[in-house]
Every structure is written in structure tokens, then in C-alpha cells.
Design a protein that fits this description.
The chain is α+β, with helices and mostly antiparallel strands. It has 2 domains: 295 residues, Zn peptidases (Aminopeptidase); 128 residues, 2-Layer Sandwich (Alpha-Beta Plaits), CATH 3.30.70.360. Helix content is 36%, strand content 23%. It is built from 12 helices and 21 strands. A hairpin with a 7-residue loop joins strand 19 and strand 20. Helix 2 runs antiparallel to helix 5 and helix 5 crosses helix 12. GO terms for molecular function: hydrolase activity; metal ion binding. This is Acetylornithine deacetylase. Belongs to the peptidase M20A family.
Length: 428
């Protein structure tokens, strides 16, 4: 690293240190918005104002339009409205002749439900700090990363450094269920030479992830008063057959040859029975039971093919039961229709991230494959924009007492800042 660059990087790092208490408060503020599905408007309003006032970015709010997005191969079917649920995009436009390359920093602000809250030791919306950890729903996944990407750019600006290429900051909705927020922002024209997503993967780069679909299985019974239970058919009991079939399908897909990106993983393709709803009275035999599940599958496989195969597998299992053979389950799909992807780490974007990582961590950048899905898929699969995830260290994602390691948030903020200087370059 040449002398000037070293001085500039040190000047920017000093700004990260100077802004650190403010950055912690900012993360706490984000964590106190209960931004579950459908409740994202308030946090997005705050973020739009912050990007405009604090970072002087050009800000646009985008409402995803299912009619416009519906034909896109990456679109996932939603069963809810997008009214008053914007995606926020802030753009830093470099002045004069451009050098370096442009970047998108993108984080999601939607979080999963904290229920049952009784299992938490902390208020899930309290952003409480104990020692070096901050606790709260979405604190790790991924409001800490969102905060780090914003403060990395803020530190560069406060240091008086003018970047020589554009930086786009996106705070998106629905990463946890469709990815349609990310898709809407890309389709609105916000693209760049690469995209970095601050998922809490513990300061390693993502080089592959599974595909994901959501399935809904509705099983009919024959309802009655319990007094006639011997002549009735309990939909809950019959739904067990479908739960067992899903578990069999999970064994089946994991027994097939592994994708090489998951070579060391003992069980890369997970099926989760996430929701069961049935009945409304202990003394009534339920007439209907609905099971909803999340299904993972290998990169390179079309989600539509998985849906066809899984539907056939479940209907075949139903045919082995006297009742279900005559009253087959109603199978439908909604939410995630997400392909998996792999990324070649031997490219300039990842090498630049590795250089930035090495400055802070003093070690080589590690690579990992993820048995979940992230919004990085859109860039890699459909737009030829290399995208990886790299973010802070946390734990208990989607579980009680989710936390993030605050030291790691600070280090990641510095890594992002160093990355900006190297990737976008800057004007002397």
C-alpha cells in the first residue's frame, strides 16, 4: 500500500473510532423498530431521512409492483399488499471523471417474529447491551450490518475523502420471505459493478447458497363432535402423514450427490416444518389442517422442478393412506421461489474485499457456503453483478436472545471503509 493511501485509510479509521458511540446508538435505534413483515414503513422513513440528511445522498423510495415483477424468474409469489412498504435507495454520486468501480451496499430491515417472547431474557425490541453484546430481534440479522455499511460511508465522508465512483445504499424489505424488495430496487435501475451484503456471517465471504421454496399442504378431515370421533376423520392426525413424507423427502434429497460447494457439509438441504394450523375447539374433531414448510435444495436446480418433484412425492405418500387416497391434500406454493447460486472467489471484487479484510483482521479471508438463502442471488444469477455477503459476528438468528458482537461491528465498519477506498478509489 502506498504511503498516501495508508494515510488516507488511517484518517478514515480515525473517523470510524470517533463516530463509534454514535454508531452504537444508531444500531440501538434501528433495533427498536419492530420491523416484521408488513411493519417496515417506520424504519424505512427513518432510514430515508438519515441517508438524505446525514449522508447527503439522493434518496428514492420504491414500492415493489407484483404486476411488473411477476414475469421475472427471481420473483416470489406474495400473498400480501406492498402499500406503504417502501424499499429505500440512497445514492452517492462521484463528481468529475470516474475512476475505480461502483458498489451497492444492500441490507434488509425486515426481521422475523420474536415469538414466543416469553423465551427471551431481554426485550426483543430493547437493543440492550450487556458486556460486548447487543441483544434484540434482527440486531444481528441484519441491522448491525446495515448500520456498519452506513457508517463506513459516513466515516469516509467525515474524513473529507471524495470517492471516485458511485456508492448505492439499499435498505430492502422481504429478504426473509421473498426477496422482492431487492428485486424491485434492481429492476428500478439501481445497479453497479458489484454488490456487498452485510449478512452476519462472521467476517467470511459467501461463495454459495442453497435454493429455497415454501410449500403449503392443506389436509381435509371429516369433522364431528368428539362423541362421534370414532366415525370422524381427524385432519391433524392425517396431516402427520404429510409431515412424515416431508421428512422422508429430506432424507431422500440429502442421500443424493452433494453439490461441490457443500462438500464438507453433513446435511446441506434442510426442510423445516414451520407452521401448523388446525382446529379451534378441544371437543371438536378438526375438519382441516394446514402445514407450511420451507424446503432447501442444491444450487443449479430450478425451483419449479423441485415444486413438481415434491408435489408428486407427497401425493404418492398420500395414496398409501385409505383416507388421503380418496381425499388428496391440496398442495400450493407461495413466498420463496429462490434459486441457489455459487460464486467464483477468484475475481477482482473478492480480492479487493480480501485486501480490506486483511488490513483489519490480519488474516486471510475465509469462504463459506450457506444452507439458507440471501438476496445476493439476484445479482449473481440474473444481472451478472458479482455479489457476496460479509458481515459481523452474531448468534441466535431467528431464535430467542439474538445478539451481535459489537467489536465485530466496529471491525466490519472499518473493513467496509477500506473496501470503499480500494474499490471506488478516491480523488487526491
Amino acid at each position: 500500500m502506498e504511503k498516501v493511501q495508508k494515510d488516507v485509510i488511517e484518517k478514515v479509521f480515525e473517523q470510524v473510532d470517533a463516530l463509534w458511540e454514535e454508531e452504537i446508538s444508531y444500531l440501538q435505534k434501528l433495533g427498536r423498530y419492530p420491523s416484521t413483515l408488513g411493519n417496515e414503513a417506520a424504519i424505512q422513513e427513518f432510514l430515508a431521512g438519515s441517508l438524505e440528511k446525514d449522508l447527503n445522498l439522493k434518496v428514492e423510495k420504491i414500492i415493489p409492483d407484483p404486476e411488473k415483477l411477476g414475469a421475472h424468474p427471481g420473483y416470489s409469489k406474495a400473498e400480501w399488499s406492498y402499500d406503504n412498504r417502501p424499499v429505500v435507495v440512497g445514492k452517492y454520486e462521484a463528481k468529475g471523471d470516474k475512476k475505480g468501480k461502483s458498489i451497492i451496499f444492500q441490507g434488509h430491515i425486515d426481521v422475523v417474529s420474536p415469538e414466543p417472547v416469553s423465551k427471551w431474557s431481554f426485550d426483543p425490541w430493547g437493543s440492550e447491551i450487556v458486556g460486548n453484546k447487543m441483544y434484540g430481534r434482527g440486531i444481528a440479522d441484519m441491522k448491525s450490518g446495515v448500520t456498519a455499511m452506513i457508517y463506513a460511508l459516513k466515516a469516509v465522508q467525515q474524513a473529507g475523502v471524495e470517492l471516485a465512483n458511485d456508492v448505492t445504499i439499499k435498505t430492502v424489505t422481504e429478504e426473509e420471505c421473498t426477496g422482492n424488495g431487492a428485486l424491485a430496487a434492481i429492476e428500478a435501475g439501481y445497479r453497479a459493478d458489484a454488490a456487498l451484503i452485510p449478512e452476519p456471517l462472521g467476517q467470511q465471504a459467501l461463495v454459495g447458497q442453497v435454493g429455497v421454496i415454501w410449500i403449503r399442504i392443506k389436509v381435509a378431515g371429516l369433522g364431528a363432535h368428539t362423541e362421534r370421533a370414532d366415525k370422524a376423520v381427524n385432519a391433524i392426525v392425517k396431516a402427520y402423514k404429510m409431515v412424515e413424507a416431508l421428512q422422508e423427502y429430506e432424507k431422500e434429497i440429502n442421500s443424493r450427490s452433494k453439490h461441490k460447494v457443500f462438500g464438507d457439509h453433513p446435511h446441506p438441504q434442510n426442510i423445516n416444518i414451520g407452521k401448523i394450523h388446525s382446529g379451534d375447539w378441544p371437543s371438536t374433531v378438526p375438519s382441516e389442517c394446514t402445514v407450511e414448510a420451507r424446503v432447501g435444495f442444491n444450487p443449479g436446480v430450478d425451483p419449479a422442478d423441485v415444486k413438481k418433484e415434491l408435489q408428486a412425492f407427497l401425493l404418492e405418500a398420500a395414496r398409501k393412506d385409505e383416507w388421503l387416497k380418496v381425499n388428496p391434500p391440496e398442495i400450493s406454493f407461495y413466498g420463496f421461489h429462490a434459486e441457489g447460486f455459487t460464486l467464483d472467489p477468484d475475481q477482482e471484487f473478492i480480492h479487493t474485499l480480501e485486501e480490506a479484510h486483511r488490513i483489519i483482521e490480519n488474516s486471510d479471508l475465509g469462504y463459506g457456503a450457506f444452507t439458507g438463502t440471501t438476496d445476493a442471488r439476484f445479482y449473481n444469477l440474473y444481472y451478472n453483478i458479482p455479489s457476496t455477503c460479509y458481515g459481523p459476528t452474531g448468534a441466535n438468528l431467528h431464535a430467542p436472545d439474538e445478539w451481535v458482537d459489537l467489536d465485530s461491528v466496529k471491525r466490519v465498519t472499518k473493513t467496509y471503509a477500506a473496501f470503499l477506498l480500494k474499490w471506488c478509489q478516491y480523488n487526491e
